[in-house]
Structure formats: C-alpha cells, structure tokens
Amino acid sequence: MTTKVQVSNALQGFFITDHYDNQESKKYGFKNKEDITVKAGTASSSYLKKLDDGTATKDDEIYGISVIHHEAIFKVHIKYSYLGMSFNETVIFN
Fold first, then answer.
1. What is the arithmetic mean of pLDDT over 33-38?
2. Residue of 68, 69, 76, 92 with fewest CB within 10 Å of its CB?
C-alpha cells in the first residue's frame, strides 16, 4: 500500500490516479505524509465557500489523502496531531 498527501490549490482541485510518478500526477503535488504540515484554516468548507463566491485563488492550499493498494480499500485510519494532542480518525468507504 502506498499513501501520499496531495497538496493542491482550490482552483486546480484534486487528481485521482493509480500511479504517483507519471507525468500527469506530478503536477498535482503528491508528497510523502511525513513531509507535510497542514496549515490551519484549510478546512474544505472554507475553500468551497470561496469557490462559490468566486474568490478562490491559487494561494488557497487544499490537502487530500491518496491511497493506492492492489486490493479494494474499505477503510482508512488517519492518525495526526494538533497543538500537541494526538487524534485518530477512521474513514469508512461503502
């Protein structure tokens, strides 16, 4: 299984791929999860409002988790820390 964090902007959006190293994928900022610090104030609701208002720019960073595995993925466990506190979230796909 390979996991990456996609760092993009509100105007470009996200890219779905089954290979992180092809030429098309490289434009979409796939990074190793250990190399990323998610900035505060980047909740999807804030950039979606900007898109609706027409005020979104390339400076509005957005983040997405991408997981590639040779079998179907039914859930992803996400562990992160914020202000020194650890959190665990599970995303379930039906």
1. 88
2. 92
